[in-house]
Design brief:
Order of helices and strands of chain A: EEHEEEEEHEEHEEHEHH
Largest interface: A-B, 53 and 41 residues
Distance between the termini of chain A: 37 Å
Oligomer: homopentamer
Strand content of chain A: 25-35%
Largest sheet of chain A: 9 strands, mixed
Chain lengths: 247, 247, 247, 247, 247
């Protein structure tokens, strides 16, 4: 595909067999990141590695006393599953490189399927999850599981690029988009999307407490997201090539 | 010519013999894209490949449930023809690389002739298609088919660069420009340009229903075009290096 | 000198012996481009090649039904002369690369002398052409032919870079600058500069009709110049990374 | 990790054995730079080398009559310690390269531990220093020394990138952040952070005079910081590619 | 040090033995350029070479009928001296490359000492020249010659980078900064700095006429400086990628 200035670095043994790669990047209502974080917590997933690039905001997330790269991966041997999440918005100039890095890595690791989680503008009641799939067989599978697929439209960002590329290569990829409120965080959307995920991937996870627990989650995520954004805004706002005094 | 950061990737066998390459890129009244899409639909053309570049908007078009690269190619063995179309405006910094990629690819594939479809500001009644050709012989051919050629002027974008380059190399290339309204979409212009195309390329296609059917077509194309534009605008408008919360 | 991302491509045999290279680039009153175009027309010069770069505006000029690269060269075996002209303003980031490409090419082709034509702000009546030369011998030659040389000052753009470089290498180069009005086009300045050129290069050309004929010429050049400028402005004005709908 | 356009150049012999690397970069209240400078002065540390990059402001600090690179390192054989400091804000595009250069260099030199000093917004009285550590063992060590660690949050800049990278590689790194006033300079914060440093690194240094002496220190640092900022602002403000007359 | 996209090209034989390199770049009151130009004229120095870069303004200075690169060098065998001067403000992105090019060249040519001339804001009467030196021995030498050295402060631009680098490498370098008015040109500052220069370098030159003669000098320099600035401003102001009509 293209040149890749994004690197994926593994920090633990890869002991999975054709695993499913769940991708949760920030988007509408932060559905992807919330859902991914919830999966990592509840399924007690272990660190697997991280993504790094000069174009990413220079920031460490601190969770449970440990500094972490804000774009990283976890694994679960039990569920034969990987979760890839980011706590910052992927910058425009990193969308192609990250998409390529993920797909190249997934293929090299013999990932069986990519499922990305995200949000979509509410089209009525907030009770539905829409799907997009890279192959006609997967479209049928989604429909068979009661997930409406998007027939005509467009989807942007890492998910969009991955889907188009996977469709071209006949690689199985699915995007699940829960109706979400364009608020800061929409845990209800995250719960919806996890429930849809459960219909296509066998998972033992309860989402009834997600909304309640999300108060805690929101606290954890807010600081990283805000500082990631501000680290860019700050330098720009000062309008000075060499930053301001209180960088 | 130049360095090419645009890649053309084939996803199906190339079983054509000196085919005509029809190019339909967005422009005035979206004539090129509408006409190209209509040709693909009505002539039941098959996917041939796609173009990809880091400079293209990171987006997947979804048509008939399948995610697609928004710049792609179709083939018709019956008509010995290729249609190359884009559902997004070619960014300025991709005009040269895409032009070069198309021409290099066309030559390597022994394409017989390039015909690009587009729109031009209406110069009276909307009833005419103007032509530009890369060789005197093609100018005569256009005129013989009742298509007025532009004697003095200028033409920009991928079509312009391709025409100048083809003229320099004596490669047969034609640009057909239908009078079009600078509205969002002008299906009448698309119908005009297809009728002109029929006069120089033997095609069994009826355009009487194009304007009527274009309501459906417009629905399909609008979402991709809008999201392609917004994916760029969004990142800029936020004025933040690392995007806003709802990317 | 420097790296050259500008390419000069020859499309005809180079059958000249130490020819004079006349350079006519847009500048004050468009004197250079008008004069060069007039020379090409009246001396019935033949196409020799063109210059191309990703930094040039993506545009084809259409003259006499044929699409042309807007920066190109013509030759005259009779006058042992080359005319290099551009129908668009050389972008700032292309000034060095183009200057280098021209000089390297000129040296490799054993060009005997470079003469660039341009305009200068009127310093009284519009009746004078000022000269700059790269060697003391050429300064004398200009003075001997009644052309006042600029003793102290500065000159910018491709002409300036070429003159300084030629002076450093002792390569014969002359710049002729006719007093010109800073209007859109000043054919009188072009006539003045051609008359001065005739004094240092033997040419059989009558400029009495230039001003009269320039109405026609202006029509030919305006469309290219305007569209070249607008192709850049357009993309910028939209303020969108991926262009607007009517690109 | 990544490409490194920042170079670390040693100008003295490296005669230390698994030393501690203390890092003091400008940030809130300039705590890091003040504390680092104070350590260098009071511990009579010797020059060890400097960091240089085209992205750094082009400036020399002049201290005690000698021009110095504004980002540089000192060593103390007695304390087996290195101090790395910068007198200018690290530009955003240098955060990753500098972080990588520091960590690569530290590993190649067998540095035992990295301790970065900085400021944090006051959360009550200005009497506390918060810690972040790259390993659970170091978190315990900080807590055992009465330094509260940040359990959830985020930290940006060189410190953040270093901490996340060190945590991934299991390299011992600590960040000490003193509550500081977002004023031009907060020597009290610097004193606080040095006192915390003393609790984890054996140091014979008295900070009781730091606030008093900081008047002198401020004078020394102000000129460099101001000129570093202005060197960037100046060129931008003029809005001219080639600077203004009084550069 | 770093990559160097600035080239130094020699156009005459280098027949000097460990010469002193005098550097006069534009700055406060244009002291450096005026003083350097005056030295070249009065000491009848000969051309030695020039500096060129794509980042420099594309311009030729014309002096005494000859086009010249605006950044260039002269030599004097009699005084075993080189003068390096620029008639345009060094663009920010060229400060590091030019500094590196000068120092690398100076070392390769076995230059004995670098002395840069410049201006500094007046701190009382305009009667003093301040010095900065790269080594303690040179500080003493300056003081012994009655030149006060700057003990604490900062200095920016090519001089600053050169001084810090020379201090790191123990290469002898001196900066002489005359009190100057931030006006367009301050010949009095230039006279002051030449008088200081005479105290550390044996020179037979009279500055009593400098202020009087500077009217002539100002005329010579103004055109180049103005056009250099405008060549950048022009392209920017138009706000068009492809320049305006009267480039």
């Amino acid at each position: 595909m293209l040149l890749s200035p994004v690197k994926i670095i593994e920090t633990a043994a890869f002991d999975l067999d054709k695993p499913t790669l769940i991708e949760g990047l920030p988007g509408l209502g932060l559905v992807g990141t919330i859902a991914a974080t919830y999966l990592v917590d509840k399924l007690k997933m272990e660190p697997l590695g991280y993504m790094v690039s000069e174009k990413f905001p220079p920031i460490a997330a601190i969770h449970n006393n440990i500094p972490l790269h804000p774009a990283r991966m976890y694994k679960s041997k039990k569920y034969n599953m990987i979760v890839l999440l980011s706590e910052f918005i992927i910058p425009l100039n990193s969308v192609y490189p990250l998409s390529e890095a993920i797909l190249d890595w997934a293929i090299s690791k013999k990932v069986g399927k990519i499922v990305s989680l995200g949000g979509i503008v509410i089209r009525g009641e907030q009770d539905e999850v829409f799907g997009i799939a890279s192959t006609p067989a997967l479209v049928k599978e989604l429909n068979a599981n009661g997930i409406k697929t998007i027939k005509e439209g467009a989807t942007t960002g890492v998910n969009g690029v991955l889907l188009a590329e996977c469709a071209s290569r006949n690689f199985p990829a699915v995007s699940l988009l829960a109706e979400a409120k364009p608020d800061y965080m929409d845990p209800k959307g995250a719960a919806l999307v996890i429930e849809a995920l459960k219909r296509i991937v066998g998972l033992d996870i309860d989402t009834t407490d997600l909304v309640k627990e999300s108060v805690e989650l929101e606290k954890k995520m807010t600081d990283v997201l805000t500082k990631a954004r501000e680290s860019g805004k700050h330098y720009k706002a000062t309008g000075e090539e060499y930053g301001s005094m209180y960088g």
